Structures are given as C-alpha cells and as structure tokens.
C-alpha cells in the first residue's frame, strides 16, 4: 500500500482525494496546508493527521504537490530535499519558466528522488488510442492538427488571490491549456518552433486568450487556440488530426467523444465515454500507475521541458 501525503487543500485536492479513494493500493496518510483551519478540517474528514509545514511530512511514499502553480518548483524541490518520500507528484505546470524546471529536476535528482508531473490527458482512452495509431503508423504520414480549448472562467474564479497573476498563475497556457500542450508533445514529440499571439482581454496580469502555431521534429504542423472567455460556460474542447490515411476529430468535455472518423481500413471504435466532472478520470489512472509502480507511464523529462519552453515563449 502506497501512502500519499497531500500538500495543498484547495480546489484540485478534491479530485486527488476522489482518485485515491477509488484506486486500490494507495491511501492518504497525511494532509498539509499553511492555513491550519483548512488542513485540520480536511484531516478530520479523512481521519488522518495534518501539518502546516510540508518539511515535517514523514512516512509517506509519495507527496502530491497541489499548491498554486507558481509555487510548484520551490515546494516540490524542498519536499524532495527535506522529506523521506521517494516520489514527488507535482500538479501542472511543474514551473512557469524553463530555468525553474531545470533547477527543479536537478534538485530532485540530487536528493535521489523521482519527480512525477501530473498530465492526466495522457491517460484519456481516446488520446491513448490516437498515440497507438500513430506509433503503429496506421495513419501514414502526419500532416496537421488543430486543437481548441474554448472554456469559461468567470470573474469569481479570478477573485481567488493567485489566479490571473504573473507570479503564480502564468496564464491560460499554464493553468487551463497546459494539458493540451503536453498532449501534442505526447503525440508528436519534441517541438522545433512555435509562435503565437496572446491577449489579456479582461485586464488580467496574464493572457486569457492565446492562438499559437507549432512545428514538431516529426514534420507535423498545427495550431492551438485557447481561451477562458467562452460565454457563460465551457463551450468545447476539440482536437482534429489530419493524416495521409485519415482524419480523426475528438471533441466533447475533455475529449471524451469521437465526433469524426474516416480512417483507411479501420472502423470507428466504440470508445465514447461520459464524464461526471470537468477533470475526467486521468488522475485515477495516474494513481493506479503509482500503485503498480509503472513509472514509465509518466511524461518524459524532454516532453516536459519542451512544453514549458513553449508555454513560457508564448505567455510572457
């Protein structure tokens, strides 16, 4: 049984708690938050001890860092250096700059620990299916992709103290669309070049809308459009892949439906699924891989650094 300590008792902690509860082989052993009332309340609900200083965590196999985005590199590095946990799970993004990412990996390596970045879209069954088609060369030459993340975050969302700030949020590519930045790296490999335009249409410190074009070493080109300004609610997430032997379009909440399929010699698979919340079930798969010690299922260092490079280049 792998023991998990959670650092940060905010919004995303609920998804981690659900995923751990639904996954055999892992359990929460401790929670931590600098706001003692939050840590104490959550610890009481879970029946586990709490601390307000993550440096005091002991006895956990894994520590999951669920704090504000810009705090991730410092928190993850210090936890690697000053606790006895062997593995550090870090919610996206692991940093807001490439320099911080390199420093985090170096400090984690020196501490003899393993950093496990959270990019749950890699575990989406439809994304995994696409990856397998690409690796098996069943689509032939890859030509182009279009990825749109057209979401809504209302004004109340940006009233949370760190949301919308340069120092801790980073903007839409880091906080909302980073999973899709990672997804295109997962599918197509390392980035060669990327350029784009961003706008802060609502007067935030960061971009709330970005349009970017990219070229990868494999030769494929594509675009990523992301916004949090969709009217009233999340409008759509969609991903279209154009290849020599077919066109595939995934859509729906977090890419859970195949909305178009025309692939040479392959019938459309019956793989659509329903999501019961906005985060999907990728965290369940992640914790299952932790329980089963399948460390190769986590993103490579090269993919992570390439993704951070793109996000930094287009966000500042």
Structure description:
With 316 residues, this protein is of the alpha/beta class. It has two domains: 2-118, Rossmann fold; 121-315, Dihydrodipicolinate Reductase, domain 2. The protein contains nine helices and 13 strands. The protein has helices at residues 13-21, 36-46, 72-82, 98-110, 125-135, 172-175, 178-188, 282-291, 301-315, and strands at residues 2-7, 26-32, 50-51, 62-65, 87-90, 114-117, 142-150, 191-199, 209-216, 221-227, 236-243, 246-251, 257-263. It is globular and about 55 Å long. The model has no long low-confidence stretch (mean pLDDT 95).
List the helices and strands and how they pair.
Layout: E1 2-7, H1 13-21, E2 26-32, H2 36-46, E3 50-51, E4 62-65, H3 72-82, E5 87-90, H4 98-110, E6 114-117, H5 125-135, E7 142-150, H6 172-175, H7 178-188, E8 191-199, E9 209-216, E10 221-227, E11 236-243, E12 246-251, E13 257-263, H8 282-291, H9 301-315
Parallel strand pairs: 1-2, 1-4, 2-3, 4-5, 5-6, 7-10
Antiparallel strand pairs: 7-11, 8-9, 9-10, 11-12, 12-13
Helix pairs in contact: 1-8, 3-4, 4-9, 7-9
Number of beta strands: 13
Principal-axis shape: globular
Measured as a percent range, the helix fraction is 25-40%
**CATH level 4 superfamily of the largest domain:** Dihydrodipicolinate Reductase, domain 2
Annotated CATH architecture of the largest domain: 2-Layer Sandwich
Q: Report strand order across the widest sheet.
A: 8-9-10-7-11-12-13
Low-confidence stretches: none
Number of domains: 2
Radius of gyration, taken over Cα atoms and rounded to an integer in Å: 19 Å
Helix/strand class: alpha/beta
- State the CATH topology of the largest domain: Dihydrodipicolinate Reductase, domain 2
CATH class of the largest domain: Alpha Beta
């Amino acid at each position: 049984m792998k023991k998990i300590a959670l650092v940060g008792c905010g919004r995303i902690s609920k998804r981690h708690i659900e995923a751990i509860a639904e996954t055999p082989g892992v359990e929460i052993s401790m929670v931590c938050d600098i706001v003692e009332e939050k840590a104490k309340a959550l610890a009481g609900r879970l029946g586990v001890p709490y601390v307000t200083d993550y440096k005091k965590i002991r006895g956990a196999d894994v520590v999951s860092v669920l704090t504000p985005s810009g705090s991730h590199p410092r928190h993850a590095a210090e936890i690697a250096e000053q606790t006895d946990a062997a593995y550090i799970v870090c919610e996206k993004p692991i940093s807001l700059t490439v320099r911080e990412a390199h420093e985090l990996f170096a400090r984690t390596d020196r501490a003899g620990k393993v950093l496990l970045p959270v990019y749950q879209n890699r575990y989406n069954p439809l994304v995994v299916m696409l990856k397998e088609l690409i690796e098996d060369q069943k689509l032939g030459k890859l030509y182009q992709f279009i990825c749109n993340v057209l979401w809504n975050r209302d004004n109340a969302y940006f009233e949370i103290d760190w949301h919308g700030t340069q120092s801790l949020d980073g903007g839409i590519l880091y906080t909302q669309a980073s999973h899709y930045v990672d997804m295109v790296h997962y599918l197509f490999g390392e980035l060669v070049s990327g350029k784009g335009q961003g706008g802060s249409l609502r007067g935030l410190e960061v971009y709330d809308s970005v349009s970017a074009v990219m070229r990868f070493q494999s030769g494929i080109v594509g675009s990523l459009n992301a916004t949090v300004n969709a009217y009233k609610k999340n409008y759509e997430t969609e991903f279209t892949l154009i290849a020599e032997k077919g066109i595939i379009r995934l859509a729906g909440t977090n890419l859970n439906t195949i909305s178009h399929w025309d692939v040479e010699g392959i019938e459309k698979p019956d793989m659509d699924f329903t999501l019961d919340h906005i985060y999907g079930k990728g965290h369940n798969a992640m914790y299952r891989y932790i329980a089963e010690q399948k460390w190769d299922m986590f993103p490579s260092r090269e993919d992570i650094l390439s993704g951070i490079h793109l996000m930094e280049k287009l966000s500042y």
